[in-house]
Amino acid sequence: MLLHLNPSSGVPVYLQLEAQVKQAVAAGALRTGEALPSTRKLAAELRINPNTVARAYQDLERDGVTRSVPGGGTFVADGLPGLLKSEKVKRLRPHARQLAVEGRQLRLTREETLKLLEEELDKLGGQP
What we know:
The protein is mainly alpha-helical. It has helices at residues 13-27, 39-46, 50-62, 85-105, 110-124, and strands at 66-69, 73-76. It has two domains: 13-76, Winged helix-like DNA-binding domain superfamily/Winged helix DNA-binding domain (Arc Repressor Mutant, subunit A); 85-124, no CATH class. A hairpin with a 3-residue loop joins strand 1 and strand 2 (73-76).
């Protein structure tokens, strides 16, 4: 699993890990049932504190992206997280707002901003 962390980005490392794993799952680079590296192994590869990886893994499991097997590791979860649609929308709204703000600040038209989003969705392929 290739992860690229940027400690100077201002985004906490554990959030960068979470986002990249979620992106890999959404893009199909990580498939259902596939094992993630152990906390210690990933921490060593990335040269970060194992507690940082553990926190990201805990949050991913809470979000239904992964599942942990005691003594067996962490795996990409089967199916979609069992969240209500209202909860999914609630989680996505801040990201949509940020996209809208960035588009406006860059003086992109509504259509240009929507087109960018559609292109990224197309890259992920398939329908949810």
